[in-house]
Structures are given as C-alpha cells and as structure tokens.
Amino acid sequence: MDHPTHIQGQDWLEASYVRKVVDALNIEEGAVRFVGGCVRNALLDVAVSDIDMATVHEPRKVIALLEAADLKAVPTGVDHGTITAVADGHPVEVTTLRSDVETHGRHATVAFTTDWEEDANRRDFTMNAIYADPDGTLYDPVGGIVDAVGQRVRFIGNPHDRIREDYLRILRFFRFNAQYGAGPCDEVGLAACIDERAGLDRLSGERIQAELFKLLVAKGAMPILRHMERGDILSHIIGEVSAFDVLTRLTMIEHTMALVPDAVRRLAALIVLNDKTVAAISERLRLSNAMTNRLRSLASPYEPFHPDADESIWKRQLYPMDPQVGIDRVVFTWAHHKGDAEAWKRLLTLAEVWERPNFPITGQDVMEAGVPSGPKVGEVLQALEEYWMAEDFTPDRAALLAQLKLVLG
After folding, report:
1. H or E element, residue 52
2. Three-state SS string across 239-258, please?
C-alpha cells in the first residue's frame, strides 16, 4: 500500500498568517517544518486547530527573525525553545529542535540541536513525529506515517524509556488511542504503561486532570477506559471505579440528546459517589470549585425524577436547582433507571430550556405585612413559595400579597 508523501488540501497550509511565519523563518531551505498535531490530523482528515512548527534556529534568532518581519514574538517557553509567533492575530508555536540532556519523569532538561532525527526521537508517539516542509512534503524519520494512516498509537523506540521521560505519556497513550486509534492498543505500549503506572504518582493533579478530561470525552473513550481499569491504571488515579454500565448508558444519552460530551458528568458516572470520594478526587485532580460542586450535587441525596410524572411536578423539582445541576441530575437518574425514553427526552429538554421564574415576594414584604424580623419571616416566605410552586408558579406579586394576608390571618 502506498503511503502519502505530501499533505494536501489543507487550508491552514496556505493561510496568510501561516505563510508570514514561514517566510520569516525559512531563510534557508529546510530551516523550518510543520510538526505534531497539524501534520497528524491532516493525515487522519481531522480538523486542525493549532499550528506547530519546528526549526533549526535557536530561540533568540527566532525572535529576531520574527521581529524583523514585523511579527510579534512571545517567549512562552523560551527555556525549552518555544516561541509563539503571532501573525494577523493568530498564534503559531515555533520550537527549536531539541535533544534531552536529562529527564525527571515530569519534565526534561534539553539542549538545542540542528538534527531533525534527534528531535524526532525525543517525542512520544510515531504519529506525532512526522514533519512537513512548507510545501507539504512529508519527512518521516521514525515511521510515523504508516502508523498515522493505520491509526496505530506507538511509542518511539523503547516505551519504558519514553514513559520514564514523562509519566504523563501513560495517560497520553490511552487518550490518543481513544481519539485517534483504531483496533486494539499496541500490546508493547500497553504493557509498558501498566508496568510504569506507579510513576503517575509523581505528576501534578492539574496535568492528570487535563489529560484525563480529554480522554473522557474522546469518541473511543469507553473501550480505552476498560483497558485502563483492567491494568489498574484508572483506579490508580481516581480511586475505586464504579460499574461501567452507568457510564455506558450516560454516553448513549448524551449521543441521543445531542448533548456535548461532558468530562465532569462522565467522571461522576465513573467514580463511587459520596462525600468522601468527591473530596478525594477533587484534591487528587485539583478540580475547580465549580467542578467539585457539580460532583457534590450528584453525591447528595435528592428526590429522583420520574419520567411518568406531570410536567408541573418536574418543574417543582427543577426549580430549586441551578440549571446545570438540573441537567446533570436528570441525565444521571435516566442513566440509572429504565423507562419510557420519550418521557425522559421531554424531561431532559425541559431541564435544558425552562427559564426558572423569580419568586416575586421578599422578606421585606413579609415584615411590612406585620411579621417581626426573625425566623418567622423565613417560615412565612417558605409557606408562600410552596403555595406558589403548587399553583404552577402562576400567582403574580399581587396574588401572593393577598395570599400573605390570608396566611397571617
């Protein structure tokens, strides 16, 4: 089977802002090439969002060349050779060819080089070490084209060595299989990931979270997550894992209802939900307060939704909830229970589109009606609000003030 020698039909390759960066840096033939995700995705016919380039020029020269071409140069990672070029408002990441001097399992000390093969051999997977000249001609020092076209995720060289350079590559192996892979995982790479899983303890929660969340929403997440659990990798990073059937049903619901796959909701379906596990996973993954609160809302007891209930009952259940919490709880209840799918769809649609009304009575109204400041004000407000909800939120302010008089009378 013939394999491509060029990338073609890519709008980004001829984009004005890209060509400006190329023209600024390619002062001699072979001085700059595209690399990484843009080349890989072009071969896989996947949308390209970020443009990365590699160059023989050291960072200071990259900055000088860009500025000489009236382009902005941002030293985003200058110690590791990375400069972000900005042309027409678009960023392009430019990194000097590198070799690893020393690795620490989380980051590396690098030296700059002009050797393209040396740069390729320090990368993680073969499909990420394919280069393309400015005209789209491919340069493939580690055999990445055949793997990219075949959708095989393989480490470059010895998988154990690549993993020990940065243990995040364990999660990247699984995430790339979920996003770009087809067929079974590479057995040698999978075995190395399992063998080296203890190294995950050396990574920060932020790095694990970022990689895990990308994996959770990838199109092929389910079979890959099962691989990770069988290899004691998933439980190693998030603790005890719940049954996969709930997550399976949840992903089917997301697909059926055209919901954007949600990493936090999928994580909630994957873990054993209680206050203790939520606190532990929040600390381990360094979750934001908003993420943690979503998990807690699903871990807290709440009245389950019933698909055969009246819409008025659904509204009374949804009313006290933040809209996102309402959607999460409906999806979760649906994933845990069987029933009329059409009824569940109507309920979920209501949770998505219903604009919760504002209760038009305040504590000041109650006090002006003669109730002294104190706990009694809250009790009266609660009684009024319950009456308002029971009447399907229809009484207006005037009607509620009249009801307030009846309550006090």
Report:
1. strand 52-55
2. CCECCHHHHHHHHHHHHHCC
Distance CA 39, CA 186 (A): 21
Give buried/exposed letters for 144-161 (b at 16+ CB in 10 A, else e). Answer: bbebbeebbbbbbeebbe
Decide if pLDDT at 101 tops 70: no
Structure tokens given for 357: 């009304």
Q: What is the pLDDT of residues 212-246, one digit of tens each?
A: 999 999 999 999 999 999 999 998 899 888 878 99
CA pair distance 46, 8, nearest whole angstrom: 13
Q: HSE (CB half, 13 Å, CA atoms) of 352? A: 12
Q: DSSP string spanning 218-236?
A: STTHHHHHHHHHHTT-HHH
* Whole-number Å distance between alpha carbons of 309 and 294: 25
**DSSP conformational letter for 305:** P
Model confidence band, residue 108 (pLDDT cutoffs 50, 70, 90):
low
Place of tokens 């190693």: 236
Nearest of 138, 152, 103, 137 to residue 123 by alpha carbon: 103
Residue 92 contacts residue 68 (beta carbons within 8 Å):
no
C-beta of residue 139 within 8 angstroms of C-beta of residue 117: no
Summarize the chain as % helix, strand, coil (round to 5): 55, 10, 35
Rounded Cα distance, 131 and 389, in Å: 63
Q: E strand or H helix at 53, and its extent?
A: strand 52-55
Report d(CA 97, CA 39) in Å as an integer: 17
